[in-house]
Amino acid sequence: MQGPEPRKPGRRYVVVAPYPVRPTVEGIYAGHLPRHHACGIDRLEAKDCSVKLIEPCMAISSDLRRRLRLDIFGEWCDPLQLSRAIAHAVRRDATLYTFSELSLGTALITRRLGRYRPRIVALVHGEYHPSYLVGSVDGAICLNDDYAERLEALGLDNVVRVMWGPDLGFRGYECDLPERFSVVSIGRSGRDMQSLLRALGAVDKVPAVVNVQTSVLPANTQTFDKLTTHLIGPHNFDPASYARPIEAFRHASIFVVPLIRQFDTPVGLTEVNDALALGRPIVMTRSRGLGFDIEAEGLGIWVDPGDVDGLINAITMLRDDEPMRREMGINARSFAERRWNYDRFSADIDMFMASRGF
Known about the structure:
Strand content: 15-25%
Largest sheet: 7 strands, parallel
Number of strands: 13
């Protein structure tokens, strides 16, 4: 009698992370963090793929190292160490999956100079000129429709557009609407906190949690006499530290995402994901790179860059119109459930990797 057919080796990936993923993965397994901060790694690992992780140096206990299922192959503190770690980890049958500018740039240099030429798949936000990626990477996972179309027009064959949405199963998003109106805005990238703080100063006693750095505070500190505001910052964001602001999100009535300009990349999407999962309205600076129209979908209100009066009007309107606020919140959660969620995102990445031979 013949024995069982030998199991074929699964797909092999070397993941180059721009931030310490281990505490993020531990937080996800423990239920303290939403899964979308894993950027699809958890889905690949669950499909019995070989996943080796190279991430920034960080002290880790032997107990935690045993508990984590991911293979922590290497660590890096600078591009040279990262290049050496990649060269050590990669073999001809492995795919290099990267999702940051530094890790992608170093990976490309390593491939050009090293003995091995690994397949490289990059999760890109649109930060590179498309011509830089064509001929350099084997596949691109894009968070932006326009950027994906530009890559395809330049001849990159393996391109997919994915929607990085929230983990709707995360228990931290399960909460009732707050009884008292309040505002939250704690993102950092490309934020126009000066305009937001001026707007909050003009609205009577609106509780708010905002993330500011001292360099962006208005010169007239009397602006804050009318605020009931908790200021967070400055701090260096990484997904593992995101557990702290989640409590602020749960108590917020609306999310405000003020940007310094219109972006072609999905700046502000992390905070938007939290708003969608919680079912909260969004006030946001117009953005071509977000991937959807918050007004057309009934999720919130657009304002123009630097428009303090627009912020005042939007915040006041949502404060004074509870039925509108509730309707937008319901629409936000429904939109995420139908179209914009992490289960769909991670499944699309897995399908792309498998169908294209990565």
